[in-house]
């Protein structure tokens, strides 16, 4: 790396910490504080009521304070990874970073506490005195053997979980990686020989974990900077090292590496030489975890052992052993059941959960975060990626269950599956709102055809459909391409086995399809030759014909291309009679709740009749999500104050809607702020029919609707479900090219609901 590049990266890191405001954390209130009434409840005199409740029953702290979701990250900065003993103050950026990871991956709030105390017993006294403030304590970057003393004292004296992540977090992730490495190598814990370098806190904890997983203590050979830890050695020894002392005349790493199945390195750079790797057993497992330079570089190890299974602590090689796979999720599970400690059963549950997830199909979200990487279980994929959103439900759920079964949970869960669903809802923003839709979709097993079946997002959605729903995916695509892309993505599904595939280049139904299309279109300029060509090349038209012929129940298309191009073929084949496109409805999931927007794609300047139909369709779909429609017709004009074009059309639509009884609430025309602010609406139009903020906005032109939709996506972190094609009997939906695999799964659930369930 050039000096200029290094300087640039250093400055970028400093800028990240300094701007736009110093540090990586801030405190935000979770309750409103805008009126005198709010103040009297938040502080005096109302706060006294919560204090009295907690005094009468300390368990009420979990009801009335943030304690049950609050972790203290405590360090004295005596052993900061890669930096050594830099002191408490200099360690603060690291501890802030740890707190950020807690929040990002498990929605746990943290205070980082840097303590200028090097005496382990005094440090333990300080930590123990913090118990009333926190639900758990994460000890961090405290040097060995002081860390053993601090943790032991705190665990004995405190009635909340105390977890030294450098020890146990590393041990858990190593345990998960070792579990899967042995599965790949076809070896067993009870049979292997382990050679380890590094007698610090992390190394000792890893060895203890491996013993709990089945490794025989006599098969573990521990080396440190002075050589083998053997019986009778006095130099640089402590009780933790002595537990692994061997009765042997051997003295060096080179002496003991012969026949080792697993090398575990938590020491320093270049400790393991290629000549030593040659002495190891067949299919050696090498965990070279020193940072930033491992005990041996992977390419050097593979030169002498091409079949080696290798993990490091670095992100630029496969199998990064990263504590973030563990600590957010083990704390999440422990906090949610009010665990008094994190015991061995919870740690092993964490090991098993992480290992199990790596053996499953990779999530679409993880694949998107790690584009270009092969995320298929095997020698180069032993543990999941930190950005796999399934970690929180799988690992935290397993930890919570283990806490309850081992008797350390003070607030046991009554429904573990409901708890896991709640955790998923915290990760997948659409999960809670989509629940009524998924439940309705389970009533009937509908066949959903995807026009762009070769797209990886579609393949992942199809995999998820088979795992999570009763729907049957049908894909349109070339078999060799679909198979190759599914394999490359690490998916288990295969065409003809797990789902039906329509091959546009060679399908036995081709003649039936082009003739059906021609019959529909022969009086609209489509010749037999053109019909044949379209049924060979146009997958949207093929999918629409399948729905027309009742070979599929609904079509999903649009992962590439322009919306109206797809709509043209959908309307050609599936339109007519009672079916007509009444607009595109997008559900935007925002921080403060859902907001539906229409028409985002179809009518540039809809007529009053089209606006009215869009309102009726929106009300129907809002109800599908278990919500009471509160629909505002939005434009520049407000309650008749302008005769602009949009205002005239919106008022005409209101008149059309008023001709019949409507079983939903709507009003207009009005500005967006009036629709969303009940107090403002009360001032400008006290007789408005809306109750509270509107949850659906209907616009008089697509530019306005689409603009609001895109602003919410790009600037308000809005998550879109849709667009939902209204008026076509749920027989087709056209998505946006930016849609994710999770978005496609949501659309499949919407398409999977029979019309009778929401009409």
Automatic annotation (TrEMBL):
GO biological processes: malate metabolic process
Active site positions, chain numbering: 98 (proton acceptor)
Protein name: NADP-dependent malic enzyme
Residues forming coiled coils: none
CDD domains associated with the record: NAD_bind_2_malic_enz
InterPro entries: Aminoacid_DH-like_N_sf, Malate_Decarboxylase, Malic_N_dom, Malic_N_dom_sf, Malic_NAD-bd, Malic_NAD-bd_bact_type, ME_PTA, NAD(P)-bd_dom_sf
Entry's family note: In the N-terminal section; belongs to the malic enzymes family. In the C-terminal section; belongs to the phosphate acetyltransferase and butyryltransferase family.
